[in-house]
From TrEMBL:
EC number per UniProt: 3.4.16.4
Subcellular location: Cell membrane; Membrane
Domain of life according to the entry: Bacteria
Primary location: membrane
GO biological process: cell wall organization; peptidoglycan biosynthetic process; proteolysis; regulation of cell shape
Entries under InterPro entries matching the protein: Beta-lactam/transpept, Beta-lactam/transpept-like, PBP_dimer, PBP_dimer_sf, PCN-bd_Tpept, Penicillin-binding_protein_2
GO (cellular component) term, any one: plasma membrane
The organism of origin for this protein: Candidatus Rikenella faecigallinarum
Segments crossing the lipid bilayer: 7-25
Domain Penicillin-binding protein transpeptidase: 246-569
Protein name: Penicillin-binding protein 2
Length: 604
């Protein structure tokens, strides 16, 4: 027999064997038919526990707790006790029906999540009844031991369709960070999903792992994050800001780590957890005082008198001003339309003008900067240089912090004034910039960063709220770099001295001195066209080797010394001494409330 016939016979034999095997499986042997009819594969996503968040001292800010989502495969659902399901879930029968209808519209074959974040006791009751087509999916939900820092920490919720289209990691029913740290560090906190493949019978009941679990993958837990926040100080800041609208930011100047970020009014972060999230979110969203709005990074205010120190520093660097220069103040700056000022000694040098927050002094300085002969004595050239200096302090742009919703603030350009005044303007036109008014807009975080820059005598680290991520040697490299201003460090000494005298010698904030702490501060009253002026105070302590910077901003609080200054000084005292020895001031600030007709009217 030749080789060709042998090959043909071999091929024919193989074909006959295959046909025989198929005949056996499809006609004679019923085992596989029964298995296919009675069992199906269910691919169950194994969700990892979300990473927990600690404060700088290792105290829990956010924890993950066991919860369950109720899933349904609509085509598998058999008639069931709707009343039982509704009562067990704590919803109405109508809500159950609507949830099922929504799941059917999405897909009759694919699992849909219809009720989320159920406690374990509800899961056990559902397991006892074995509702066909329904099953529970293990998840974790968030809990907040201290009930603080809602805007800072953020919240999680179900992912939207736009995110699903943009990021293939997410599927319908997944959760994602929606704001705050939860959003900024979502990639680290979420972990990695796993998959469990199991056999289920015709009733949807589990029959064991498929292929002994060979195709399962384990979830990878989210990474724990250590925050820069001091939980005790954050809680005190929120207590001091209760009944007020505004924010407080505290920074460790040597690192740029944010110790406090309190936005007021705030909210209990537990409100945005569980099945009540939707209703609570809408209630907070429509609250006229906007508790979901993080004023520390999203509000743009005039900086007021805290900005005078920037103009003083620019004047020194440009050589148009000297610490010993004296300028008169007779109730204000008298040229042009004038700028009013409060009563204080006159004339004053730079240290005294800073301590007494003299408007006139800094009006003289600003005009000398903008009409500098080095730029031809033309305001536009001097203005452009002034703006360049201001930007180097971190104003007019985002600081590149780890807050996704940080606003850049605003520093006007010469082109802006050209358009507004059709090219006809000069240093008198923009004189309000001398005292932090006019078109200037800053965030409270930027003002706190200014304080850190002064405390460091000329540089700052980008403010950030995460100190450590588990499993990583360091955080983003940008947070370790020094950012220098355009002002030489030697020029900061008279400004620091002026801020020291403002609190400890003879100035606008002497009521808030604390023996031994050497607090350096600058009061500010930011003009407000829609009501009472805003109260602001910027300080750091101690004078040498500063440990903390605090910026407080209270809307409609009137003068800087009225409400912002006591808040900031109490926080400094608590942080540096671990106690407060001014109980009367503490009580007064906590009891102080400020009426806001514009907010309250919206809230009705």
């Amino acid at each position: 027999m030749d080789r060709q016939k042998i090959l043909q016979l071999s091929l024919l034999l193989v074909v006959l064997i295959i046909i025989g095997r198929l005949f056996w499986l499809q006609v004679i042997d019923s085992d596989y038919k029964d298995s296919a009819r009675n069992n199906a594969l269910r691919y169950m996503v194994q969700y990892p526990p979300r990473g927990e968040v600690y404060d700088r001292n290792g105290e829990f800010l956010v924890q993950s707790t066991e919860s369950y989502d109720l899933m349904v495969v609509p085509r598998d659902v058999k008639p069931f006790d709707t009343v039982f399901l509704a009562n067990t879930l704590g919803v109405t029968v109508d809500e159950v029906r609507k949830a099922l209808d929504k799941a059917k519209r999405y897909s009759r074959r694919r699992p849909s999540m219809i009720f989320k974040q159920l406690p374990k006791e509800v899961k056990l009751k559902l397991d006892e009844r074995h509702l066909v087509g329904f099953y529970t999916q293990y998840r974790t939900s968030r809990t907040y031991p201290r009930k603080i820092a809602g805007n800072l920490l953020g919240y999680i919720n179900e992912v939207d369709e736009a995110t699903i289209r943009r990021d293939p990691y997410y599927r319908m029913g997944d959760y994602i960070g929606k704001s705050g740290i939860e959003k900024s560090y979502e990639e680290y906190l979420r972990g990695e999903k796993g998959v469990k493949v199991e056999l289920v019978d015709v009733h949807g009941m589990p029959q064991g792992a498929y292929a002994e679990g060979r195709y399962d993958t384990l979830p990878v837990p989210g990474k724990a994050i250590t925050c820069t926040i001091d939980a005790r100080l954050q809680q005190l800041a929120e207590e001091l800001m209760a009944g007020k609208v505004g924010s407080v930011v505290a920074i460790e100047p040597a690192t740029g780590e944010i110790l406090v970020m309190a936005s007021s009014p705030t909210y209990d972060p537990d409100k945005l957890v569980g099945r009540g999230l939707g209703n609570n979110y809408m209630e907070l969203l429509h609250n006229g005082r906007h508790p979901l709005f993080n004023r520390a990074v999203m509000s743009r205010y005039p900086p007021g008198s805290t900005f005078k120190v920037v103009n003083g520093l620019i004047g020194l660097q440009e050589g148009v001003s000297h610490p010993e220069d004296l300028h008169p103040c007779v109730g204000g700056y008298p040229i042009g339309r004038g700028v009013k000022c409060h009563n204080h000694p006159s004339p004053l040098n730079l240290v005294q003008a800073t301590a007494n927050s003299c408007n006139a002094y800094f009006c003289y300085v600003l005009r000398d900067i903008m009409d500098n002969k080095a730029y031809g004595g033309i305001t536009k050239g001097g203005f452009d240089k002034w703006r360049e200096y201001v930007l180097s302090f971190g104003f007019g742009r985002k600081l590149e912090s780890d807050f996704w919703d940080e606003l850049p603030g605003y520093v006007p350009t010469s082109e802006f004034y050209d358009r507004r005044y059709r090219g006809s303007w000069n240093s008198l036109t923009v004189i309000s910039l001398a005292i932090g008014q006019g078109e200037l807009g800053v965030t409270p975080l930027q003002v706190a960063n200014l304080g850190a820059t002064i405390a460091n005598r000329g540089y700052y680290y980008i403010p950030h709220v995460v100190k450590k991520i588990a499993g990583q040697d360091s955080i983003d490299a940008r947070f370790y770099r020094k950012n220098y201003t355009m002002v030489d460090p030697k020029y900061f000494d008279p400004i620091v001295e002026g801020m020291y005298e403002a609190v400890n010698v003879a100035g606008t904030a002497t009521r808030f001195a604390v023996p031994g702490l050497d607090i350096c501060g600058k009061t500010g009253t930011a003009q407000n066209p829609s009501g009472a002026d805003h109260s602001t105070f910027l300080c750091f302590a101690p004078k040498d080797n500063p440990k903390i910077v605090v910026s407080a901003y209270v809307e409609h609080g009137r003068w800087g010394a009225s409400v912002a200054a006591p808040i900031a000084s109490l926080l400094v005292e608590q942080y540096l001494t671990d106690t407060i020895k001014r109980p009367e001031m503490l009580r007064q600030v906590k009891e102080m409330t400020i009426a806001y007709p514009m907010y309250d009217k919206r809230n009705k």
